[in-house]
Specification:
alpha+beta; Beta-Lactamase; Phosphatase 2c, domain 1; 2 domains; five-stranded antiparallel sheet; 25% strand
């Protein structure tokens, strides 16, 4: 198994590469090359090929003439292996009794076909890779599902590029601009997308006069695919969140919905919390960078209590507890802030964020956020932000 941080970092880089690839005749072939280059050795993925749907058949379009002699050139759309892949969207042919035409005609040593389907508005394509000895199912499914979804979105986003302005308006309506006014609390948040629409999210949930909840998340990538994930998550939580709800159950159901999304972006980190008027805080952290509680003495990190959302049909996540005394401050942030770079490709870093929060902790939540954005923007010499950046500050203050 690969070390998770290493795996997620490389996968995020791969998805970013898919997002930057120029669409056109070579787009799908370049995806095969990019995947093998990024994960060929790590995941034991080799010999990628592509079949295109053509009048009731799937025909091999890559590799081309001179390189395709060892593969089946054409398969009927109603053949067992094709219908299996189309139905499941991703399938690994590892059953001992399976004799699929996705196998090479002549096999050299151990290999297992893994196939997934992608769509554009007009037709389907099936990508096939060979898995060599040492592959791990969990890693392969996670990676190939992520690639499948990213490619789907690139193909479909090209078809709806003229709708981006409308998508931006929809997303702006989803991100609550005015935080709730609750006695004993000072709350503020701000998001800065790298593109017209972004993949960061936050929302508030008012339970009664003194109790409330918040969510804060970061979808992988940015742009339209990430924005659509934000829409799904915010809408799902608004429908499912109630006072005294079973937090873990609701979040697991949300994960199922995200995972089943045909064209959702790959995954999303999500932090959800409920606040009581006495300062108690109950939370679940699905793979998000640890929010920080700035206390009178030291800093408490609210570490992940489960996996990121959307990667698997079922996730293990649990609830945890913290407490904010009067004067304590909770900071939530997305990677776009700490990974802001200067001309020397140095990062802004969480250390700089912590230093600034400590220095300005006595200020209002809104002012602290403005200072952090201003300093990060200055650090990056005012150039365009490469990633979505979002901050939320929640202070427990003295009741008047």
């Amino acid at each position: 198994m690969l070390e998770p941080k290493y795996f997620y970092r490389k996968l995020d880089s791969l998805l970013a590469g898919i997002g930057k690839e120029k669409t056109g005749k070579a787009f799908l072939v370049n995806i095969v090359t990019l995947l093998e280059k990024t994960f060929g050795d790590d995941l034991q993925i080799r010999r990628g090929r592509i079949y295109e749907e053509v009048t009731g058949n799937y025909e091999l379009i890559y590799p081309g003439d001179g390189e395709s002699g060892n593969y089946t050139l054409k398969m009927a759309a109603d053949s067992p292996e094709v219908t299996t892949v189309v139905k499941t969207r991703l399938y690994i042919f590892d059953e001992p009794t399976e004799n699929t035409k996705f196998l090479p005609i002549e096999r050299y040593g151990y290999s297992i076909p893994a196939a997934f389907v992608v769509n554009n508005p007009d037709k389907r394509f099936i990508f096939v890779f060979e898995l060599l000895s040492g592959w791990v199912r969990e890693e392969i499914e996670f990676c190939l599902n992520a690639v499948r979804r990213a490619v789907n979105y690139r193909l479909f986003s090209e078809a709806v590029i003229g709708e981006m302005q409308q998508a931006a308006r929809i997303q702006q309506s989803l991100l609550t601009s005015v935080p709730p006014s609750i006695e004993g609390w000072d709350i503020a948040a701000k998001s800065k997308p790298a593109e017209l629409v972004g993949g960061d999210l936050y929302d508030y949930f008012r339970f009664d006069a003194n109790e409330f909840g918040i969510c804060f998340g970061d979808a992988s990538g940015h742009g339209l695919p990430a924005a659509l994930m934000v829409r799904d998550v915010v809408t799902g939580l608004r429908m499912g969140v109630e006072k005294h709800m079973k937090m873990v159950y609701t979040l697991k159901k949300l994960n199922e919905v995200i995972y089943r999304g045909s064209y959702s972006t790959s995954f999303i980190s999500l932090f959800f919390a409920e606040f009581e008027n006495n300062g108690n805080l109950f939370y679940a952290n699905g793979g998000h960078p640890s929010p920080l509680i700035f206390k009178k003495k030291g800093i408490q990190e609210l570490h992940p209590t489960g996996l990121i959302f959307g990667a698997f049909p079922d996730i293990s996540i649990k609830r945890s507890f913290a407490h904010l005394e009067e004067g304590d401050l909770l900071l939530l942030y997305s990677d776009g802030i700490i990974e802001r770079q200067n001309a020397d490709e140095e990062f802004f870093t969480i250390k700089e964020v912590i230093k600034l929060v400590k220095k300005h902790k006595s200020k209002k939540a809104e002012d602290i956020i403005e200072i952090l954005f201003e300093e990060a923007d200055k650090f990056g010499n005012g150039v365009k932000w490469e990633d979505d950046a979002t901050l939320m500050v929640i202070k427990r203050i003295k009741v008047k």
